[in-house]
Amino acid sequence: MNEHFTIAAWFLALAPLTFSPGPANVMLAAMGAAFGLRATLPFLLGTNVICVLQSVLIGFGITIVVSESEWATVALKWAGVLALLFLSIRFFRSKVASGAASEPLGFKEGVLLQVLNGKFLLIPTLMFSLFYNSEAGGVAAVLGFTGALALLTLSANLLWVTGGKALAAVLQEAWFVRYQGVFFGSILLGTSVWIAMN
C-alpha cells in the first residue's frame, strides 16, 4: 500500500466502476430477473474466476514494472489519476445499455464475457497503479488487493443478480439514464482530484 491508500479512497475509486452498469452487470441483472440466482451461479462463477486471474496478473505485472524503474511509481500514479478523469468524463456522457438472455448462460460464457470485458481490466489496473507500493508490498499485497477487489466485484454482481427485476426496471427509467452517469462520474472525478492533491 502506498501513501494514497485509505479504505475510503480505495472504495470511492473502485465502487463506481464495479457497481455501475457494464456488460457483466447488465447480463447478470437480466439473467437474475429471468432465471433467478441459482441458474445464474455458473455464469457468475465464470466471470469472477477470470476477475481474480486478471487482477493477479495485472498486480504482478505492475510489481515488475515498478521494481525496474524508480519513476514508474510516479508515472503509474498520474496514469491512474488521468484514467479516473477519463472514466469520469465517460460516465458523464454515458447511456445505459440493456441486455437480455433467452436461457441461462453457463460458466464458459461467463469466462468468455469477462475475458472480453475491457471495462473490468481498467479496475485492477487502476487499483494497483493508484494504491500499490512494491517496496511495502510484494506477493502478500497483490493477493490482498486481489482478494478485496474480488469481494467488491462479487458483491456488485450479487446485487445485480438478486435485484435483477428491480434493477432492470430502473435501468429503463429516463431519470436513471440521465443521472447515473453524473452520479458515478462525480464520484470518480472527486476521487481523482483527492488522489492528485495528496
Itemize the secondary structure elements and their pairings.
Layout (H helix, E strand, L loop, with lengths): L6 H13 L3 H46 L3 H22 L13 H9 L2 H14 L7 H24 L1 H8 L2 H24 L1
Any overview of this molecule?
The chain is mainly alpha-helical and 198 residues long. The chain has one domain. The chain contains eight helices and no strands. It has helices spanning 7-19, 23-68, 72-93, 107-115, 118-131, 139-162, 164-171, 174-197. Helix 1 (7-19) packs across helix 6 (139-162) and helix 3 crosses helix 5 (118-131). The longest helix is centred in the first third of the chain and has 46 residues, at 23-68. The two termini are 14 Å apart. Residues 96-101 have low confidence and may be disordered.
Features:
mainly alpha; 198 residues
- Strand content range: under 5%
Taking all Cα atoms into account, the compactness measure Rg is 17 Å
Low-confidence stretches: 96-101
The shape is globular
Topology pattern, helix = H, strand = E: HHHHHHHH
Helix content: over 70%
| Number of helices, counting only DSSP H or I runs of 4 residues or more | 8
Average pLDDT score: 78
Summarize the structure.
α3 packs antiparallel against α8. Helices cover 81% and strands 0% of the residues. The chain contains eight helices and no strands.
